[in-house]
Design brief:
- By secondary structure, the chain is α+β, with helices and mostly antiparallel strands.
- It is 41% helix and 23% strand.
- The protein is built from six helices and five strands, in the order ααββββααβαα.
- β2 and β3 form a beta hairpin.
- The protein starts with 7 loop residues before the first helix and ends with a helix.
C-alpha cells in the first residue's frame, strides 16, 4: 500500500510535481487547470496551489494563477481525510466542508490527478 503524504504541502510541493514530470501524457489527458485552497490549522500546513494539466509540460506551482477551471477549497484536516479515503470527497461536499467552484465535472477527475502523485 502506498504511503500517504503527511500534509497538503508535501503533496503539492513534492509529490504532484514529481507525478506530473513522470506522467506528463496522463496529466494532459485531464486537460484542466485546478486551484487548490487548503485552509491550514495554524501549523502552516495549508496553502494555495495551481495545477496546470494543460501546460506542456504540466505544472504545479504555489499560489493561485487566477485562471483555474476548477477550484477546490477544503480544510487541511478534511483534505487529509480525502487522501486516506477517496470516497470521502462526496461526503465532505454534501456536508459543506468541501467547496468546488468552476466546472464540477473536472472535480470528478481529481482522483486521476492524485493517482499520478502516489509514490510507487
Amino acid at each position: 500500500m502506498a504511503t500517504l503524504p503527511k500534509d497538503a504541502q508535501e503533496l503539492f510541493d513534492n509529490l504532484v510535481p514529481e507525478g506530473l514530470k513522470q506522467h506528463p501524457d496522463k496529466a494532459r489527458e485531464l486537460n484542466a487547470i485546478y486551484c487548490f485552497k487548503i485552509a491550514g490549522d495554524g501549523s502552516g500546513q495549508g496553502g494555495e496551489w495551481t495545477v496546470d494539466c494543460t501546460a506542456n509540460p504540466p505544472t504545479c506551482i504555489r499560489g493561485n494563477s487566477g485562471n483555474a477551471q476548477c477550484t477546490v477549497e477544503v480544510s487541511n484536516e478534511d483534505f487529509n481525510t480525502m487522501l486516506g479515503d477517496p470516497n470521502a470527497g462526496m461526503q465532505l461536499y454534501f456536508q459543506g466542508k468541501l467547496r468546488v467552484s468552476g466546472d464540477p465535472m473536472l472535480a470528478m477527475k481529481l482522483q486521476q490527478l492524485f493517482e499520478l502523485a502516489r509514490p510507487a
